[in-house]
């Protein structure tokens, strides 16, 4: 196969995949109708409604897994911030690092408990860039063209972070290495792989899946799958 044919096949597969997920979103597939829980509720079950526990870690993306060697790495944090940041890999690694353990919940109905992460806490990053008063949403931009949006208050949480290691090893390329966003209290599509830029904005700006029928917010305990 020539490179062009390769790209065409990839494009077709990708278009099919996107069309199928858009259809699921329209049909409201995978909704169980279980009682919504609440983030603030200490008694909420660990496993969100409609989820099944898995031990492996499935890979989901648009079929393109960008190669971002540390030498080419750059992360920009900009938009409505007092002190924009543009970091190379050394600059990112020089930020204070944290370790955390959290569960991940994918809208395609699997959850995985007790993931051990290393990276930079979202709050550490936010304290450095200092969001302006009119910053209300965050848009994550990735090397594969993917985007996803969250309210600033969902990124400004103790368990939200930028992650470069999982289970003590550098995050693999298929899972978004060298660096991905991680917002464990929302469905995993809000955790952008191959992170390139974090933009703070005033008005909500739906991302890739949010424009294709996924819920704008994505709280697993409220089963905010499709919106
Ligand atoms: N850059 C990028 N990030 C992405 C995606 C993507 O296609 N590109 N897919 C999202 C979706 S839909 C899911 S479910 C998770 C999957 O992460 P995983 O492959 O590490 O399980 O990544 C999210 N982040
Ligand atoms: Mo997903």
SSE layout:
Layout lengths: L2 H25 L24 E2 L21 E5 L5 E3 L1 H5 L4 E8 L4 E12 H8 L7 E6 L4 E5 H4 L5 E6 L2 E2 L9 E3 L12 E7 L26
Parallel strand pairs: 1-5, 2-11
Antiparallel strand pairs: 2-3, 4-5, 5-8, 6-7, 6-11, 8-9, 8-10
The site of molybdenum atom has 5 residues, from loops.
Quick tags:
single chain, 227 residues, alpha+beta, Sulfite Oxidase, Chain A, domain 2, 26% strand, binds the ligand Nc1nc2c(c(=O)[nH]1)N[C@H]1C(S)=C(S)[C@@H](COP(=O)(O)O)O[C@H]1N2, binds molybdenum atom, OxRdtase_Mopterin-bd_sf, OxRdtase_Mopterin-bd_dom
Structure description:
The chain is of the alpha+beta class and 227 residues long. It has four helices and eleven strands. A hairpin with a 5-residue loop joins strand 2 and strand 3. The model is unreliable at 1-7 and 33-38 (pLDDT under 50). The ligand Nc1nc2c(c(=O)[nH]1)N[C@H]1C(S)=C(S)[C@@H](COP(=O)(O)O)O[C@H]1N2 binds at residues 57-62, 106, 142, 144, 146, 175-176, 188-189, 191-194, 209.
The number of strands is 11
Strand proportion, as a percent range, falls in 25-35%
Tell me the number of structural domains.
1
Listing every helix as H and every strand as E from the N terminus to the C terminus, the arrangement reads HEEEHEEHEEHEEEE
Give the CATH topology.
Sulfite Oxidase, Chain A, domain 2
Q: Determine the N-to-C terminus distance.
A: 40 Å
Largest sheet: 6 strands, mixed
Protein name: Sulfite oxidase-like oxidoreductase
Pfam family, one: Oxidored_molyb
Domain Oxidoreductase molybdopterin-binding: 66-209
Region (Disordered): 28-48
